[in-house]
């Protein structure tokens, strides 16, 4: 314990008085000494504190410098999960087309909820919300806002304008919860490919976005991976997709069709450049599935993938290809086409009779049912089934949309002789346009199997060989002739050497038999035929052309002009310049095996 010096010590005061000195001088001197001691002590304390503060600053800046150096020299870490709670993932990668253009992305928004116990004026709040959101009923909303509930969801997402209008109501019981929603900036474009997304787990401050259809559903886990840094790149070309949908919609209206679909794909890589199905929908506001009527009439129904149909004469190419491959026929061989043909209690006839005999070439380009049946009989049912199975026509298409998994082709359980005959011209087996596009790519690309894909590819597929290059070349000659002199003359697009095969198939009646005035018209095509790069398969459902004195329902009058316009519009977008078609080589029409 420190002893303080007395200001007037008696030992000094008494001698001073005896000498006649002033004792006050002693007091002032002692007071000065005491102040000096206090000042020295305060200075030491202040200097200590300043030293401590300086030391703290040096340590802090030193730690920051060390941390910055460490971050600059270490490997990049995976990004932390963007989440508001520990259990709800809110990340989702973008989807882009083959050129990197955005097809689907996330958009920051807010949900709207209420705390009814904090609502000041339930009636005013209900009236205000009903003005902002016309689907809300003011009376019902007022009852809910005036209840004893502690929490009430009102809307899962808001536009910025709606959010501002709700804010302007000034009601403290109306609250906003941050979240992200899936945005499709191109609206309806490629709707059946993208499919759509919805909310999964939800909380006040977060909601997970999950894929519900299309590629969004197939790649849901990958798109939600928080470690993913790259978007999902599809094979689609946004410009070509827009052209295909626009032309297809116009053709559907012009031909009074109930529905339409088209698939454009690369004949070598299997990349799907465009896939359209009409009617369609806006994935930003995906409608609820229909619970009544025919599911095929729903805009959610993907006619190019989910729809399995008897596609008619487009199947004739497979019988002729197999006959050529087995050396059972040559393009110039004569085939008996006398009709009508009776088999198993059924009558098979040609749409137009062209005499007692036709060459294989003419059977193809003039689409003779009887001639095709004669070829199929030489092949036999067992070999026919194995060939179609090798083309992937009897199993679900492995394309990357969720709807394809349940789109199983319909084929006979017992492959009878009658099945062999009817299947040769596209009746008795039902398949999708996606299956058909892949099979036609195999027919024209030199004969190797191609599997359709919606993912961007960097190289041609090296699939199994189905037919020889010589057979493929012969088929290309016949397909080109079908356009120049056969059933698809409206498809002759100048500069692009289009080839193809038409198909007109009556639709089955659920009560038995087939409708007389309802059919599926299909055109399976490729271009340019001297070196095919792309396959286009287009379909119209229940189309009818009415410009003439009588309604016309065949493919040559309905879907072929639509497909021609698609090629005319899309080919330049894919980098194909019009060119003079090379002169035909005789070697292509004769066997070189």
Helix/strand/pairing class, anyone? Answer: alpha+beta
Taking the sheet with the most strands, its summary is: 5 strands, mixed
**How many helical elements?**
17
Strand content: 15-25%
Ranges with pLDDT <50 over ≥5 residues? 76-86, 587-593
CATH topology label of the largest domain: Beta-lactamase
Give an account of the 3D structure.
- This protein has 593 residues and is α+β, with helices and mostly antiparallel strands.
- It folds into 2 domains: 95-233, Penicillin-binding protein 2a (Domain 2); 240-284 and 301-589, Beta-lactamase, CATH 3.40.710.
- The chain contains 17 helices and 16 strands.
- It has helices at residues 10-19, 23-73, 122-132, 138-145, 160-168, 191-194, 214-218, 220-223, 238-254, 316-325, 360-365, 369-379, 381-390, 417-424, 433-444, 469-485, 559-573, and strands at 95-96, 102-114, 152-155, 174-183, 196-203, 206-213, 232-233, 259-266, 272-278, 334-336, 341-343, 346-348, 357-359, 499-508, 514-527, 534-541.
- Strands 1, 2, 3, 4 and 7 form a 5-stranded mixed sheet that branches. The protein has a 5-stranded antiparallel sheet with strand order 9-8-16-15-14, sandwiched between helices.
- The longest helix is centred in the N-terminal third of the chain and has 51 residues, at 23-73.
- The radius of gyration is 40 Å and the shape is elongated.
- It starts with 9 loop residues before the first helix and ends in a 20-residue tail after the last helix.
- Mean pLDDT is 87; it is low at 76-86 and 587-593.
């Amino acid at each position: 314990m420190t002893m303080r010096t007395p200001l007037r010590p008696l030992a000094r005061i008494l001698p001073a008085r005896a000498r006649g000195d002033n004792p006050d001088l002693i007091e002032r001197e002692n007071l000065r000494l005491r102040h000096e001691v206090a000042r020295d002590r305060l200075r030491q304390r202040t200097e200590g504190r300043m030293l401590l503060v300086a030391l703290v600053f040096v340590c802090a800046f030193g730690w920051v410098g060390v941390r910055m150096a460490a971050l600059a020299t270490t490997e990049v870490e995976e990004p932390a999960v963007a989440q508001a709670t520990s259990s709800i993932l809110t990340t989702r990668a973008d989807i882009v087309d083959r050129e990197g253009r955005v097809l689907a992305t996330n958009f920051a928004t807010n949900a709207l909820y209420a705390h009814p116990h904090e609502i000041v004026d339930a009636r005013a709040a209900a009236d205000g919300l009903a003005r902002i959101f016309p689907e809300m009923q003011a009376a019902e909303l007022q009852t809910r806002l005036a209840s004893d509930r502690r929490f009430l969801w009102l809307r899962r997402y808001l536009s910025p304008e709606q959010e501002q209008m709700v804010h302007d109501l000034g009601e403290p019981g109306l609250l906003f919860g941050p979240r992200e929603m899936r945005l499709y900036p191109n609206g309806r474009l490629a709707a059946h490919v993208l499919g759509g997304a919805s909310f999964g787990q939800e909380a006040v401050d977060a909601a997970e976005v999950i894929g519900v259809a299309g590629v969004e559903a197939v790649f849901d886990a990958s798109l939600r991976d928080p470690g993913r840094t790259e978007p999902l790149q599809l094979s689609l070309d946004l410009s070509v997709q827009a052209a295909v949908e626009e032309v297809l919609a116009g053709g559907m209206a012009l031909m009074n069709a109930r529905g339409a679909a088209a698939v454009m794909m690369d004949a070598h890589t299997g990349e799907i450049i465009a896939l359209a199905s009409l009617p369609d929908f806006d994935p930003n506001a995906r409608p609820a599935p229909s619970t009544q009527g025919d599911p095929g009439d729903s805009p959610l129904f993907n006619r190019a993938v989910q729809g399995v149909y008897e596609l008619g004469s487009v199947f004739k190419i497979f019988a002729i290809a197999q006959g050529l491959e087995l050396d059972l026929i040559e393009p110039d061989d004569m085939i008996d086409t006398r009709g009508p043909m009776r088999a198993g209690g059924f009558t098979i006839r040609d749409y137009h009779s062209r005499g007692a005999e036709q060459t294989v070439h003419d059977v193809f380009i003039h689409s003779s049912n009887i001639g095709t049946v004669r070829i199929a009989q030489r092949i036999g049912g067992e070999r026919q089934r194995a060939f179609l199975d090798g083309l992937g026509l009897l199993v679900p298409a492995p394309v990357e949309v969720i709807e394809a998994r349940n789109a199983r082709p319909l084929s006979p359980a017992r492959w009878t002789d009658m099945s062999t005959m009817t299947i040769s011209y596209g009746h008795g087996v039902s398949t999708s346009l996606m299956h058909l596009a892949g099979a036609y790519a195999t027919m024209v690309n030199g004969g190797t199997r191609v599997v359709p894909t919606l993912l961007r590819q960097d190289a041609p597929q090296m699939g199994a060989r189905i037919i020889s290059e010589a057979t493929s070349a012969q088929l290309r000659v016949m397909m080109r002739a079908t356009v120049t002199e056969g059933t698809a003359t409206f498809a002759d697009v100048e500069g692009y050497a289009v080839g193809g095969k038409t198909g007109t198939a009556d639709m089955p009646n659920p009560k038995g038999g087939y409708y007389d005035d309802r059919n599926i018209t299909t055109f399976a095509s490729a271009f340019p035929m001297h070196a095919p790069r792309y396959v286009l398969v287009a379909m119209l459902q229940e189309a009818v052309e009415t410009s003439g004195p009588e309604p016309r329902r065949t493919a040559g009058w309905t879907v072929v002009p639509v497909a021609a316009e698609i090629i005319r519009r899309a080919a330049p977008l894919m980098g194909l310049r019009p060119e003079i078609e090379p002169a035909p080589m005789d070697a292509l029409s004769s066997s070189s095996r």
